[in-house]
Amino acid sequence: MTRKGFSMRPSLPQPLRFVSNGIQRRPAALALALVAMLGVAVPSAYGADDSGGALPADMEAIEKAYLAGDYETARAALIALADDSASPVVWYRLGHMLAEGRGGAQDLEAAKAWLGKALEADYADARTLLGRILLSGDESEAARAVALLGEAAAAGDATAQYALANAAMRGIGMEADLAEARRLFEASAEAGNARAQYALSQFYDKGIDGGVQDSAKALALLQAAAGQGNAWAQFDLARRLGDPASGLAPDEALADRLLKSAAQGGHPQALAIVGMQTLQGRSPDIAPDAGLAMLQASAGMGDPIGQNNLGWAYATGTGVTQDDVAAARLYGQAADAGYLPAALVMASFFEAGRGVPQDMARAVALYLEAAEKESPAALAHLGRLSAQGDLPQELASHSDHGAWLRLAALQWPDSDAAAMVLEAAQAGDPAAQLWMLEIVEARDAPEAADLAMAVGFLESAAQAGEPQAQFRLGQLFARGDHVAQDFVKAHGWTNLAAAGGYPGAREARGALADLMTPEQIAEAQAMARALLSGARQ
Fold this sequence. Notes:
Serine Threonine Protein Phosphatase 5, Tetratricopeptide repeat, two-stranded antiparallel sheet
């Protein structure tokens, strides 16, 4: 079954991807802000001429303008030069700028025309770029795109090999073929293409095509791609440096540098994280305005974490003028994309009428959706609403209603929910009696009388034959928590829990026995038999 928002077809993120409605790219203003923030030069996608052909004299000034970030001047000069020039380099570079939308509006049709003209003059790079644009266009152009990319890939063009590998993965313009995709990624990665190295690392890490998995090779490829500045690889490597399961030695400083570099490279989640850290004052080397720009860029890319974090900025008035309506809009976008934390915030906004009209039905629906994803916070909120009498009547008999109340009482141990659990415990409900001790313990400063009452409830549940209560009571006696330490009683209650099949009880009983004399063990066993006999009667 395909879940909403997910695709069964494997896919890989790309720092720059041509799409039917334009090229996904980092806004120039953001790029310049990030350059100022990090002191890192933006690498030029414009490229230098390696064809050996003569360039018009004006090209030197155009190149200077481009490399300085003055894209409008560079583009206008190229347009003025292109009609009278016989240089395919001019046509190619103009096509590149038109395709990316640098220095003006994006114009893919004009880009294709100029690139086609450069291709007619046998300018090799035009073949690859034109193929990439066509690959993202109408389905009718996919076959030509694959043909162009195939020619360039066969000639050893690593960028074309990478693009063709993606086409093979997705079945665009050709039959989906993961083995062929891996072969092309291998060739491109070997030639030093950073995006191919990252893509291939996913193959070796996850065995996407059912082929060889090699975690060491996956890591080496990931590090190589990150070292070349691939933002996706840098983000992935930064996460691994903070994950003990990755096998990498923790390195917070390196992880921080990689994360910021990934943000500079336009990675949506890196932008969201670094931007949030900046606004919260956890990245003092970055100006707050740059942090806000990063959140805006991430949200603008449709990243739900970026939308959520920018919503937080508006909700709290951090870095922007406080605006609940703007916050609700952003949180809502992130919630619609399936981001659970944002869904919980939106539920609270609907409940309170904050930034949106008050709507308890919408709030409950969002909490229920989050509860289906096993969110403890959502379950607790449902319990809180139930205790307040704000849940629809039909939900009061929900099979998880008791669990909702328990979690609400644990979250808010002095709330109406806690009072409802206490009432049930006093009425003899074993489940409520079991829960009362952890609810009392959750208070800031539980009173001794309340703890004694809760232990009494726990003992009642244990005597009623509840294995979890028996095990918990055994732990209390073993450690001397809220009761006098007593290994005999600890062993006896743990023995009963083991007899009831409670997980871990057998092992705990064995550990206790190692601390006891044979006489104490015999006494504990007699106690357990007496308790068991009393329970049966």
